[in-house]
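re: ur question from yesterday

yeah so i grabbed the chain u mentioned. its 96 aa long if i counted rite. heres the sequnce exactly as i have it in my notes:
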Amino acid sequence: MNNVEREQVWQERVAQWQASGLSQRAYAIQHGFPARQVGYWVRRLTGVQTSALLPVRVVGVPAAMPTITLRSERGWTLTLPGAIPASWLAEVMRAL
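ran it thru and got these structure tokens back, copy pasting raw so excuse formatting
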């Protein structure tokens, strides 16, 4: 098969892949082609880079609010927000 014929065959295969709705890898496996070969021909024939880097913006995550965790010898655990009043916490501790 010469280069022109090979390119025509792969033009058909790439069109079939695009119409299939499958990933390149799934299409390659289904048809017995190496996945890298499918990717090569897609890039060559469509000019689309399938593994291009995309710009991202990193946004800081707000600091987690501190918590107070009480654990009993009986196995229960009570997790409370760290901003609760100390007097309320003292009442809870007396009630336990």
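noticed a couple things. The helical segments are 3-20, 24-31, 35-46, 86-95. also The first strand starts at residue 67 and ends at 71.
anyway ttyl
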